[in-house]
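Translate sequence into structure tokens.
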Amino acid sequence: MKIHLIRHAHAGSRSAWDKADHKRPLSPRGEGQAKAVAAALADAGIDELWSSPSLRCRQTLVPLAEATGLEVQVVDVLDEGNDGPPALDALLAAAAEGRVVAACSHGDVIPAVVATATRRGAELEGPRAISKAGRYVCTVADGQITHILAVPPPDGDT
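Result follows.
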């Protein structure tokens, strides 16, 4: 069983955005990254697409939703500022029901999920934090993540 954790694609400068941050959209670069992520995961057997409520996260999953015919579900536990254990537990509950989830979240939540999983015994292959549009492929066995593989962003940004 797999869980795919995706950091949202490039959304431009937070400081240059003068509206509510959760409404900040993807940049043209981010749109390209989102398409590349979708191409990489289109045949990964994903059953559900989970997103933070933030627009940039939802937009990151739109090309994957189009490729798979799935709807993007907003999951509050993935919102920026949330903690790792509740997000990880929600993802593991879905995996326990046999669902493969691709979840898009933020640069604080994703590393917190990874840190929680490694504290619980998962082996991490790659960095603890990834750049925008980077992702982790998590292997689940016996109700826990056992292995986490970091996949760099599709445009090679580090």
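Note: The longest strand covers residues 144-151.
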